[in-house]
Amino acid sequence: MKYYPINLNIENQVCVVVGGGEVGTRKVLTLLECGSTVTVISPTSTEILQRLSNEEKITLIERNYAGFDVENAFLVIGATDNEALNRQIQADCQRYQTLCNIADRPELCNFILPSIIRRGDLIVAISTSGKSPAFAKQLRRELENRFGPEYAVFLTLMGAIRTRLLSQAHEPEAHKGLFETLINRGLLDMLRKNDISQINSLLSEILGDGFLYETLVED
Question: What is the C-alpha to C-alpha distance for residues 5 and 126, in angstroms, rounded to an integer?
Fold first, then answer.
């Protein structure tokens, strides 16, 4: 199986999770983090899912799964330990041409979920194409120390700089050299050290007056 890597925008999209246990709960939390509208189908559910339902952050339907539950879904995740039910979910999603992931059953999925490191807008995805999720998790733990919180700040700063340059009628292609220079001159390391004075000196040298770290990250 050769998977096509993709970052999917699910903001405000209807996503259905079948299964209210620990695995389903983890899937729900990730979907909410990405801004989706989540419905959970399960006769039983964790305290976390009950709380999210009470806070009206998810729709919790406390009954057994029915085929029509996935009819209008953009994306479906099956998180049950019932093999027959998992296969029924997959068949229903195939009928409705819906994106479907069955936890720990790559042969029933038309997409699989990588192990993820998230630092703000930085997403590092690790996948073994479903061959060894345990190894993907081990690699994630090893890399988590490599990518610290400064990466989130770095991307916030770079995004603010790009927005400011575009507002000044700069052509996007003209930004490439500026950004490469900031990277090559050690901006990320300065952020790691929280050396604001040095950061502002570099920004002023490369970008000119008006580019200050404090105002850029606040914007």
Answer: 10
